[in-house]
Amino acid sequence: MILPHNYIFYNPKIIILLILLYFMPNIYQPAEDSFLMSRILKEQIPALINEKPNLKFLEIGAGSGIHLETAVSLGIKKENIYSSDINRNSVDHCISLGFNCIYSDLFESIKGKYDIIIFNPPYLPEDSREPIDSRISTTAGRKGNEIILRFLKEAKNYLEKDGRIFLITSSLSKDVDFENLGYNSKEIGCEKLFFERLCVWELKVIL
To answer: What is the pTM of this model?
Structure first.
């Protein structure tokens, strides 16, 4: 298992969040992909805040709220942090943490434009052996990339000029042709597990 970096261990709010999640089995709990995204946010956000102190941050699929806590710990103003989830338990949980969070299927209920949009999507191909109640957090269709494709077709409409997306993909799902969808892409961090390779991509709209 990939361990979270030191700022997670020494951040009391995130430690409390991780403990509470053991008692909330219907919410996607932080795992290797979550810790990879948190590491990338720690590496990327400080420079972006220096360039634009009032930047607006959106997470689609907020889950446990771990990335919202990471964002605020790195200096993004809490009032500029927005999030959504298709799981109403996750929405209620993130609201209880003090964050703006709404129920939404991807961008269905999202308004406005954002400087940073992050998404740790469901990316596993369908598996009939998986319990139905967990599929909403993990399964993304027959090829495993269907939800990512839906997200990318809509996301460009919600990015500020020079905005960027941080997106996780897995080697278990079909590759995505970012350029064909209108994005410049750069792989900025990966983790090799014994069963898959997880990567975070930085995406910008092709102008």
So the answer is: 0.82
